[in-house]
Design brief:
The protein has helices spanning 6-30, 36-60, 65-90, 94-120. The protein is mainly alpha-helical.
Length: 122
């Protein structure tokens, strides 16, 4: 049985893993690596970080409201960062750059929250 906050993190991790793998295949097949930063962020932040946090919560459990806030800032921040980077690198505008900066900032908050959660863990 999955503990609280685990399923949304693992589902989103799997989705980012699929996105990253298909994006990597496309980049290699096309011989155009202009979106490699988006590909890397989808896999490292989207797949690896979300997966790691999900496994942490499965092993150690959640820390109440703080873990819920962390889970959703992680998901929203990662999604905003990766989609914003993708759109900025394909369309390119100040508005899309702001969207991935906001996503990145929310993601940064989730990393800080996770530090507090780990420190608080008994």
């Amino acid at each position: 049985m999955l503990k609280e906050n685990v399923k949304p993190l693992l589902v989103m991790s799997a989705l980012f893993g699929i996105l990253g793998v298909f994006m990597g295949g496309h980049l290699a097949g096309a011989g155009d690596y202009s979106l490699r930063a988006v590909h890397a962020h989808a896999l490292v932040v989207g797949w690896l970080s979300l997966f790691s946090w999900g496994i942490y919560y499965q092993i150690f459990g959640s820390q109440g409201w703080l873990s819920k806030v962390h889970t959703w800032t992680a998901i929203i921040g990662t999604t905003g960062l990766v989609i914003g980077m993708w759109v900025y690198n394909t369309v390119g505008s100040t508005l899309t750059m702001i969207s991935f900066i906001i996503g990145g900032t929310i993601l940064m908050i989730s990393y800080i929250l996770f530090l507090f959660i780990v420190i608080k863990q008994k």
